[in-house]
Design brief:
Strand content: under 5%
Low-confidence stretches: 23-33, 227-233
Coiled coil: 55-106
Keywords: Coiled coil, Membrane, Transmembrane, Transmembrane helix
Biased composition (Basic and acidic residues): 266-282
Region (Disordered): 215-240, 262-282
Number of helices: 9
Transmembrane segments: 12-29
Number of strands: 0
Helix content: over 70%
Length: 282
């Protein structure tokens, strides 16, 4: 047999195997990491699964609570139940039923969130800033900017001192939630993260936002009430007006000083030119 034909007959399987391995490797690279534009949808579906599991647990708790109520009623009939046992068992049933209803409502909301995420999913060629992670990080940055306004604006710091007090309970809650969101924040907008990590970061940003909104409402309410937690809005506006008048006076003075300096400079220049143009005396 021809040596070349013998070699082909012996090693014919290498080319198909290599092609198959290359194809699988390419598919693996393509599937490595979640799709950025589907992050919100994948996270919403994960939320649905978590909510469905919570519904199952809450319904099981209702069954357990009802069984405990039946047992307490039976022991009461046999005069073996302590005083108040039936009332306590009935209270636990009501609490479990409320929790189950809340879990069902949350599941419905999560399912609606899936539809919303599917409807707002960006296209395959969307810019980075339109992707879910970039939008969420921008929301986080906007929250940080709102907080920094109270730290850098003197008028806001004077008008709402509670917003710069880390010991004030509403601000303490916000700072803890904001720190949690910062820990979960990805390193960049185009980072590849899982749907679970995205969901955790999204929920942390939302909790921090709600905490800051609550703190801001409380601080402004105190300011309107005139309590020590903050100054009245009319006082803040008066301060703004005073600062505006001071700034205008400073601007006018600066303009007058510039005008005088310019006039003096022009006069000195004319005098120098006149002296330079005179004919020297013999």
């Amino acid at each position: 047999m021809d040596p070349i034909l013998a070699l082909v007959a012996e090693w014919w399987w290498i080319a198909p195997a290599g092609a198959g391995a290359g194809t699988l490797g390419w598919i693996g690279l393509r599937r490595r990491g979640p799709n950025q534009r589907r992050l919100e949808l994948d996270a919403a579906r994960l939320d649905v699964r978590t909510a469905a599991e919570e519904v199952t647990r809450s319904r099981a708790q209702v069954k357990v609570a009802r069984a405990e109520l039946l047992r307490a009623q039976a022991e009461k009939s046999a005069s073996r139940a302590p005083a108040g046992a039936v009332a306590e068992a009935r209270r636990r049933v009501q609490q479990a039923e409320r929790h189950a209803r809340a879990a069902v409502a949350d599941l419905r909301a999560r399912r609606a969130g899936v539809n919303a995420a599917r409807a707002t999913m960006p296209g395959s060629r969307a810019a980075v800033e339109r992707l879910p992670l970039a939008r969420l990080m921008a929301e986080h940055d906007a929250l940080t900017a709102r907080w920094m306004e109270y730290e850098t604006d003197p008028l806001k710091a004077i008008g709402f001192p509670a917003m710069t007090d880390a010991r004030w309970p509403p601000m303490d809650l916000f700072l803890r939630e904001h720190q949690q969101a910062s820990w979960l924040r990805p390193p960049s907008r185009d980072a590849r993260i899982s749907a679970a990590d995205y969901s955790a970061y999204r929920d942390a940003v939302r909790r921090a936002t709600h905490a800051f909104d609550a703190a801001e409402r409380s601080a402004r309410s105190e300011a309107r009430g005139g309590v020590p937690g903050g100054a009245r809005p009319e006082a803040i506006e008066a301060d703004r007006a005073d600062w505006g008048e001071v700034a205008q006076d400073l601007l006018d003075n600066a303009q007058r000083a510039i005008a005088r300096s310019t006039e003096l400079w022009n006069r000195m220049r004319r005098d120098r030119d006149d002296r330079g143009g005179e004919t020297p005396r013999k």
